[in-house]
Structures are given as C-alpha cells and as structure tokens.
Automatic annotation (TrEMBL):
Keywords: Glycoprotein, Membrane, Methyltransferase, Signal-anchor, Transferase, Transmembrane, Transmembrane helix. The keyword Glycoprotein applies. It comes from Iris pallida. The keyword Protease does not apply. This is Methyltransferase.
Length: 442
C-alpha cells in the first residue's frame, strides 16, 4: 500500500472507478432506474457477488446502502488483495472461478458484478457465465464493465458479439447499457428456457442435478432451471431488507423447517448473543469488532442477532450437514460451505471474533485433529481477537490445556443457561512477537 496524502493507493491492475466507487455505484442504480440512485432498490437488492474484486472498494461502498457483498478474488500477481479487503473490514473470500462450483448455493445473489476482472467468459462453452447464472436469483442482474461492452476495436467487437449471443441463448436480456457498462437481467421463470429451439446450447441441466450441491462439485456448461415451486411463484418470493432477516424464508420447506422452528431459533440466538456481549463488554470498545465468523452457522440466527452491531458475519456451514446455506442467503446474509478438517480459504489474521458452537464435537466425530483446528483458528484470528466456544465441558477442558502454547487467555466461562450441558468459554488472543516467546512453551 502507498500513503498518498488523504488516500491510500493499493497495488493492482488499475480501476474502472475513475471518479470513485460511490459515483460508479450510483450510475448503475440510475441505469436501472432505481429510486434515489440507490442500488439497494428499496431493500429488494441485498446480496451481491463481486468477481475479481481487487481490494473490494465496490463492496465496501455498498455497505452504506445496506447491501452485503461477497468480494471474490484469487491470490494473484496483484498481491494479496483479499487480505487488503479483509483488513479494511470488507467481506471477502479467497477463491477463483475455475473448474469447481463456488461454495454458494443456487439463487444466492441479486447482483453479480465484474469490472475489469480479466475473466474469459467465453471459455469452455461459457461455463463461467453459467456458474454466475446458477448463483443469481430470478430477475437477478449481471453488471459487466469492460472495454468489450463498447467495442473499442476489432477484437473487442468479436468478443462482444459472441458474448451477446451466448447470454441471449441463456435467456438473459439487456436491462441497460451505457458507455462501457452493460447490465443483463436473468429471467423470472423457466418460460424462455422451454421456448428455445431443440438442441440450443447451452443445454438445460439434467432434472436430477442439485444446483445447491457445491462441495467439490465440478461446474457444468448447462443452465440451471428453477424448481416447479419457484417457477409458480415467479421469482424468489423474498421480502425487502431488513424485514428479510427475520421473515421465514421460502426455502425453509426444503429443509423441513417450520415457521415456528425458525422463529424459535431466532429468539434463542438473540438471547445467547445478548449474553455473549455481556461477557465481552468489559474487553471491547466501540470499534473493537468488525469481521466475525460463525464457524457452524446453522440457519444464520447468530448473525441475525447482531443486526444492530456494526459488524458483518461470515456464516460457515459444514459440507456434510443440512444445506442450510440457502436459508442464510435468503435471510440477506452471506456465508460459505466448508469442512473444518481443512484450512479455511482466507489469509492469516483476518477475523476479529470466531464463534465455535459444537464445532470441536463435530470434528472429533469425523476423526480429525482438534489440535489442528485450534491452530487453524489461531491462524485466522487477529491478535487481540476473541473466540467464543459453546460446547461440552470436556471440549472446554481440552482447549484449556493449550492456552499457554497458543498465547490465548481465558476471559470468561459460564454455563450455557440451557439443559444441553454446554459451556460458554470466551478466549482472547494475545498480541505477541517471536522475541516474546517463552522458552518453555514447546
């Protein structure tokens, strides 16, 4: 990073936001005729995927509009841009559009965005665009800002013609086009797919394809159709934000959750989070916490209970459990799928607080190393950051044995206040350097 007076300049391949990300975002909203040039469209646009996000200025500026963005970029030649994004307090994920599906369920985002992201969208029969199509909600948008959008030279014209033809066969329509930015919109129903000529490519995905299966699942160059239930509903059926957070989402039925179960879970976690904050309050100031990870998020009620805090939560769902991640996205939250027997896709020291509800118990059932999990949590956690463990007493006693070696300190411990036999254990990571390491810590 370079200190340039009142601004900080980041390394990278330039920017499309010549007049600032805020003005660029307002221009997108005006192109779509949204009220007050606000991209949130009166709460109807809440979740965004920014592909090739750089240092995530696009997602950062959207936060003030109550829009949460999953900023996605690889570890590339432009240095550790995702690390810069997370250090700025902006949601980000280290990943790449490659051969496997991204770790998000279908119909997760209202908008996908790509600005100078240098992705070859035409490769492999348009498979990368089809992955974005899987992730977009009915009526969702893809905002593409690139020289190809205004056909600057012969090669750009060729790319634009081929890309236009591809998205047309995918049933996307141009919602707006201005200068070097085009915004496509995805259809609300399956009608256009059904009206295509036989043999049109890309084909529809197989009827038995599960569009929400993402862990290690290869991408396919096919169009994800809507379920019959969603087709009849003509859209996602979601209420605007912020009511979306606490309203029973339409995909609850996919997991056989009732409205009563949803409301009870929301209520329970609100009580638990209030209790957590009471334990943390002696140790935190107004801006102590920003990046939070819920390591076993279930349906996202922990994150929902933080609605009045100036924080964002990465909701992690186990890859071998119920696929509740689609409920989390339906609530207007973000998250990813993961196996805690492996390292999480982020840089070191990127989260201020980790919430581990029965995570250690689940890892032990798989036969994975709980010590490795402790080390991974230490890697992710920032110095002076906090861990809240909610688990059985033996798990807490196990963690206590490693506090000294990890330079963690116990902050608080209490019974969970329920009859599940769980204990709440709050830990803080010390800030230390190698020279401070005691010789007897091996």
């Amino acid at each position: 990073m370079i200190d340039a007076g009142e601004k900080i300049k980041f390394p990278g391949g330039g920017t499309h936001f010549h007049y600032g990300a805020d003005k660029y975002i307002a221009s997108l909203a005006r192109m779509l005729n949204f009220t007050d040039s606000n991209l949130n469209n009166e709460g109807r646009l809440r979740t965004v995927l920014d592909v090739g996000c750089g240092v995530a200025s696009f997602g950062g500026y959207l936060l003030s509009s109550n829009i949460i963005t999953m900023s996605l970029a690889p570890n590339d030649v432009h240095q550790n841009q995702i690390q810069f994004a997370l250090e700025r307090g902006i949601p980000a994920y280290l990943g790449v559009l490659g051969t496997k599906r991204l770790p998000y369920p279908s119909r997760s985002f209202e908008l996908a965005h790509c600005s100078r992201c240098r992705i070859d969208w035409l490769q492999r029969d348009g498979i990368l665009l089809l992955e974005l199509d899987r992730l977009l909600r009915p009526g969702g948008y893809f905002a593409y800002s690139s020289p190809e959008a205004y056909a600057q030279d012969e090669e750009d014209q060729r790319i634009w013609r081929e890309m236009s033809a591809l998205v047309s066969r995918m049933c996307w329509k141009i919602a707006a086009k201005q200068d070097q930015t085009v915004i496509w919109v995805k259809p609300l129903t399956n009608d256009c797919y059904m009206d295509r000529k036989p043999g049109t490519r890309p084909p529809l995905c197989r009827p038995d394809d599960d569009p929400d299966a993402v862990w290690g699942v290869p991408m396919e160059a096919c169009i994800t159709r809507y379920s019959e239930q969603n087709h009849r509903a003509r859209g996602s059926g979601l209420v605007p934000w912020p009511a979306r957070l606490t309203s029973p989402p339409p995909r609850l039925a996919d997991l056989e959750y009732s409205t009563e179960m949803f409301e009870k879970d929301t209520e329970i976690w609100q009580q638990r989070v209030d209790s957590y904050w009471s334990l943390l309050s002696p140790k935190i100031r107004q801006n102590t916490l920003r990046n939070i990870m819920d390591m076993k998020a279930n349906i996202g009620s922990f994150a929902a209970a933080l609605k009045d805090k100036d924080v964002w939560t990465m909701n992690v769902v186990p890859q071998d459990g119920p696929n509740t991640l689609k409920i989390i996205y339906d609530r207007g939250l973000i998250g990813s799928m993961h196996d805690w027997c492996e390292a999480y896709s982020t840089y070191p020291r990127t989260y201020d607080l980790l919430h581990a509800w029965t995570v250690f118990s689940e890892v032990e059932k798989k036969g994975c190393s709980s010590v490795d999990l402790l080390i991974e949590m230490d890697r992710i956690l920032r110095p002076t950051g906090f861990i809240i463990v909610r688990d059985k007493r033996p798990v807490v006693e196990f963690i206590k044995k490693y506090l000294k070696q990890l330079r963690w300190v116990s902050i608080a411990e209490s019974n969970s206040g329920s009859d599940d036999g769980q204990v709440v254990f709050v830990i803080q990571k010390k800030k230390w350097v190698v020279e401070d390491s005691p010789k007897d810590s091996e």
